[in-house]
Amino acid sequence: MAACEILGALMNVNRWKIRRDRQMLTKIETLYEPLLRERQAAELLGVTPRCLQAWRFYGHGCPYVKLGSSVRYKLSDLRAFVDANTCGGDAGQAATTGATDRAAASR
Description:
With 107 residues, the chain is mostly helical. The protein has five helices and three strands. It has two domains: 1-32; 33-106, Multidrug-efflux Transporter Regulator, Chain: A, Domain 2.
């Protein structure tokens, strides 16, 4: 085989591999939402990263994802946490009414 043919074959393999890797990443991105870093989550919630650390230590706060030694937060979990801790006004009444309706339905 000539050197040109070998190089061409390797380039085709690499193109196929890159295309396959891109397809896999696309599938993963559609299955899972992007994860936020601790600093980003703290900024969205209006607290310090140290506050999030304390909440985790004491078992309070929003759910988090542990990847090795890294901590990440799902945006949907942050939204749910804010919704669950909304008090007063119409939003608080709607959340309380929904909980009351669910409790009555389960009886």
